[in-house]
## 1
Amino acid sequence: MERVVSGIRPTGNLHLGNYFGALQNFIKMQNTHSCYFFIADYHSLTTHPNPADLHQNVKQVLVEYLAAGLDPEKSAIYLQSDLPETAEMYLLLNMNAYMGELERSASFKDKVRTQPENVNAGLLTYPVLMAADILIHNAHKVPVGKDQEQHLEMTREYARRFNKMYHTDFFTEPTAFNFGEKLVKVPGLDGTGKMSKSDTGMNAIFLCDDDKQIEKKIKAAKTDLGPQGENTPFSPEIENIFALFELVSSKETINYFKLKWNNGEEKWYGEMKKQLITDMVSFVNPIRQRIQELSKDSEYLSKVARLGAEKAHESGAETVRKMREIIGFKKFY
Ligand code: ADP
Ligand code: TRP
């Protein structure tokens, strides 16, 4: 069976971008693949969370994984820090990761630009830690959103490089994966690129949002002045709104509003937003309710995390053991 690995950093509540870019695929793959889904808590240290926030955010992602439909019986659901062999693998891979390529990574350049006061070495070697997460289970496929494509390219390069250096075919070259074939980018509500957690929280719809919050955010979402004639292309703002419709509404609903746009009709954005609110609430509501129930069940969460850690260890420790052997570490005792 093909192996699948993916993770999300615990830096806040999960939103629709995380769901449709990543989680949705995790859920589907559980039945057909051998799956390892983790919470990337080592990765989140680049942002220096305090201990209480770190724990709270890890718990939240664990709860949201389960609420969205990950099944601990089918998949290994674990904390990255519960598989400390990841850190050893990261050290080993670092020896063959070069400064130049790490400095050229788009996400690193982005951080240098946006947070020049905290350009730590963890940020520079972020793609190496990510490669360790993936290669530690020798994954074939990695379900992620479009923004992670370059990191996957780097993982493939590290796998190839190791194989070449040690004349082996030990590592599989993993590929970024999405069921819809193309990797997904869910747009944000403020019309500025992808949905992500922002300071105001108004750019993203979270899986834990209640009906009122969803209504408020969609009402505030950017639109334009209306279609400027018949059969004109969508404006970027309306393109974003339709992208959100595609996630949660039926074909009929989408075609109904598309027709209004194509006919150059006036004054239907109110009706459109109302429909989007209704469909969004129907999608998020059941997940939010499960989030609330699961948050209270500490005993179950601890059972899930322990089972996940065991499964992850079984696979990961063996990979690192073999890797050490290939590199030439030999015991004297
Ligand atoms: P965020 O951007 O909110 O910090 P992460 O970087 O932790 O989210 O992303 C976790 C996963 O969710 C990754 O696989 C990423 O590709 C996916 N993802 C995040 N935002 C989006 C989005 N707007 N569209 C598609 N996928 C996304
Ligand atoms: N870098 C990913 C993100 O920001 C999270 C991540 C860490 C990951 N390790 C991974 C994703 C391994 C897939 C596989 O979203």
Note: The pocket of adenosine-5'-diphosphate (ligand 1) is lined by residues 8-9, 11, 17-18, 21-22, 144-145, 147-148, 184-186, 194-197 (CB under 6 Å).
## 2
Amino acid sequence: MSSAATTPGRRPLTLLIAAPRGFCAGVDRAITIVERAIAKYGVPVYVRHEIVHNKYVVEGLKAKGAIFVEELDEVPDDRPVVFSAHGVPKVVPQRAAERSLTFLDATCPLVSKVHRQAERQIEAGRHIAFIGHKGHPEVIGTFGQVPPGTMTLIESVEDAEAFIPPSDGNGLSFLTQTTLSVDDTADIAAVLQRRFPDIVAPKGEDICYATSNRQAAVKAIAGRAQAMLVIGAPNSSNSLRLVEVAERDGARAMLVQRAADISFEWLEGVDVLGLTAGASAPEILVREVVDALAARFDVVEEEIMTAVETVAFKLPRDLDAA
Ligand code: SF4
């Protein structure tokens, strides 16, 4: 715990900072892949989709020579391309290979694990109920691992209740996106398991360690805090889930991309504030928010640690020494 010196006339604010928070091993690896690719191949290096959902990170990589595009067609033949941490449909690396592009896959290994599980379920002749959010790039990537019509998206308990499996399948299984609400997903899975007692569940937890740990840390704080700031992007699934978890546990929650987004009127009457950051938000933005708060309040920081993370993922072999 650390405390700022008390300044007369300024209101005290206890700041409960979640740990773990911010960057996960998959995000760290994806950013390093882009940086190493620039070191190895020179500029520009193309990146298909935002490498991770964070504007600060994307702008930082642009300044180093990365060019972000949405589709492979926008990549010239003579430049390397990196695929984002969210994963891509199978057809993307296939097309890159057909064009003899140099491509580097920054898909998080935990997303790749779900891709392999999906393939195995289809090989076993099962239809997959996939719990996730429509339109998220991870969901698009995972659907792109299997033939059309072999996977059904389930977004809610209502979808799980209404789901009618195809009659031609030998069986059913379910898988999930990695960045969902642990509690919501358990509710949806429970409905599927009640309606289809033989449904095959994933071997291990599909929701990743980083998503689960960040939600658990928010739960440990939300009961004590009147409000919670979550640093993250509006298109970051795991950050949005942190907002929901905080609200469900009794704290008002606000998603901010960085300090400039904080509404200080919103903090009126708040004596205890929680703070966390989604898996794609760097620690520098956490410090920026703490400094902005310390400029207006007598802040007393307290870190609430609920887990220690030691996960690290290997880089692709050809970038290891770059
Ligand atoms: Fe991988 Fe989880 Fe991080 Fe996504 S949030 S990149 S699945 S570790």
Note: The chain has a mean pLDDT of 95.
